Amino acid sequence: MSFLLLLLLCAANGVLVRSRNARESCELKLKQMHVRAQQFDDSRGQTVHCRGRVTTHYCDGSCRSKMIPSFSTRAGFAKLCRCCFERSSEVVNVWLDHCEAPDGTRVPGRYFQMLEPTSCGCQRCT
User: Fold this and answer.
1) Exposed, middle or buried, 123 (CB in 10 Å: 0-12/13-18/19+)?
2) Between vectors from CA 61 to CA 59 and to CA 62, what angle results, nearest 5°?
3) Which residues contact 29 (CB under 8 A, 6 or more apart)?
4) Which of 49, 64, 87, 106 is most buried, with most CB under 10 Å away?
5) DSSP, res 73
6) Distance CA 75, CA 68 (A)
7) How many CA atoms lie less than 13 Å away from 49 in the CB half-sphere?
């Protein structure tokens, strides 16, 4: 009870209370993942289904968010949320080596385009 009272007094007096783990750590990481894609093959006149493993970048980490008292909101608190997002990205070509026609016939592998992050950072959540 005394901790809660102290926390309320600190909030009322404008004292900022932070945890030791309040650092932001949004990073670009590398991961191998299984991908499935399909593409219409003009020469066959049908859709080809492909799959394979690709190594790709992704954004991962934690960002500081907070909820502060506010007289201008109905709930009495304003939420300031930050999330780990890509800051920039590029289109990359990935090779999927296992492809099949709708009847199950194996067909040659092919390239597909995929959007991949090139940098990450903490930004306001949407």
Assistant:
1) middle
2) 135
3) 57, 58, 59, 60
4) 49
5) S
6) 11
7) 7
Tell me the average pLDDT across 38-67.
93
Q: In this structure, are residues 57 and 117 in contact, taking their beta carbons and an 8 Å threshold?
A: yes
Place of tokens 């026609």: 101
Give 125's contacts (C-beta < 8 A, 6+ positions apart): 65, 81, 82, 83
Task: Note the pLDDT tens digit of each residue in 50-59.
Answer: 999 999 999 9
Q: What residue type is 62 in one-letter code? A: S
- Is pTM beyond 0.70? Reply is no
Average pLDDT over residues 102-110: 94
Nearest Cα neighbor of 27 from 54, 55, 63 is: 63
